[in-house]
Amino acid sequence: MRNLMKKYALLAEDIQESGLDVEQIKKDLKAQVVELPSWAVGNSGTRYGTFRDKGAAVTIWDKIDDCAEIQRCLGVTPVMASHVCWDKTDDGRFSPVREYAAEKGLRIGTVHPDTFSKQEFRFGSICSPVEAVRSATKEHFKECIRMAREMGSKTIGMWVADGTNYPGQDSLAERKHRLFDGLKALYDLMDDDMTMLLEYKPFEPFFYTTDVQDWGMSNLMCTKLGERAKVLVDLGHHVSGVNIEQIILALLDERKLGGFHFNNRRYADDDLIAGTVNPLELFLIYFEIVNARLSGTPTDITYMLDQSHNIENSLEGIIYSVMNIQTAYAKSLLVDRKALKAAQQDGDVVLCNKIVMDAFNLDVEPLLAVVREEMGLTDTDPLRNHRLSGYHQKVAATRKEGILTLGGA
Predict the structure, then answer these.
(1) Which of 81, 169, 350, 364 has its CA 20 to 30 A from that of 41?
(2) Dist CA 159 CA 233 (whole Å)
């Protein structure tokens, strides 16, 4: 720890010399909040199968316990997102969920409806050509709003899994009209202080068309719905090569960026640990967010994880993801923007990039260690904190074998 403090002192000195306020940077890092996905702490996998961990969460109460352990180690994850597909109670009441979460130092965040798991969704949910299916989905939305109210949630995370597999299978124009009609039904059910976050995905589970296929369609629907509908960006829901940070900037500028599902991908919706495959992308996303905030653009964003931990321990994968998110955010705060602006005005392309990459290449672990210590965490290394706690051994000895829980959208 002494060596770490020496490194922090040197880093803090460099930060001050570049004209940045190290105390404000620490304040920003402490204020960061990342929502934990309830569905990711259980056994999750792929369509091919699931490797089960002994002690993995089975009930919603288990999930709250696991998220409380993650929050104990990290200090920036006091919110648990919920998915109605897997978060059920025996009596159908959800105010006890809110109360138990509060006892554990948590609150319930984004609630996600189900548009993909039922047999009747073969041809879609709100976009289905079958009117009875569309009506049943709208009834399901009523139940979701009830659950959200009982749990104290103010955000509805909407992934419409609908699409087609073959040309001519359905009228694409009619599906677009059904899409808006279904979303408006949900939007009209929401309380005035609730927000809808509309996710998009280019393919899967359907492969010819997806009804909310990209950020443009999501933004179009949200704009038509109203101010309380915004775009949700899942990092894995893009084809290879898409510049996600440019999408982020555009949505921020239009006041339509509502939230994230953080994960990492190599090819498509891989749902890997955030910041592992492409940490530069995560840093550049935060770079644009911080730029927008400093310019006065509102950045009221819901940050969530959405991952599937098939071969690694779920809690460790989540903790490591948040650590990588903290690292990316810290580096984005350390960009010398004054020097960058001058280089941009001079047209010095190489220097512009070097200033950004210098921040990306910084070792910010000493800074994050001090932030965690000042937050009162018992260990400045969250992953080590969890591993040494004996938590995994405890739940493995007391919980029954976990049931199958597929990953999120």
Answers:
(1) 364
(2) 11
pLDDT above 50: residue 267: yes
Q: Where are the alpha helices (H) located in 105-256, listed in sequence order?
A: 131-151, 172-189, 215-225, 244-253
d(CA 43, CA 147): 24
Alpha-carbon gap, residue 132 to 126, rounded angstroms: 10
* Alpha-carbon gap, residue 118 to 106, rounded angstroms: 30
Q: 325 burial class (0-12, 13-18, 19+ CB within 10 angstroms)? A: buried
Q: How far is CA 403 from CA 10, 130, 142, 166, 306, in A?
A: 49, 32, 27, 34, 19
Tell whether the model's pLDDT for residue 48 goes beyond 90.
no
pLDDT for the residue numbered 407: 47
Residue reference for tokens 């997102």:
81
Q: Residue 391 and residue 269: Cα distance in Å, rounded?
A: 30
Asked if 247 and 233 count as a contact pair (C-beta separation under 8 A), the reply is yes
The 10 Å Cβ neighbour count of residue 346 is 10
Instruction: Identify whether the C-beta of residue 89 lies closer than 8 Å to the C-beta of residue 97.
Output: yes
Identity of residue 381: D
Residue 42's φ and ψ, nearest 5 degrees, are -85, -175
Q: What does residue 36 show for φ and ψ, rounded to 5 degrees?
A: -95, 135
Output the six-digit token pair for 131. Answer: 């009117």
pLDDT at 178: 98
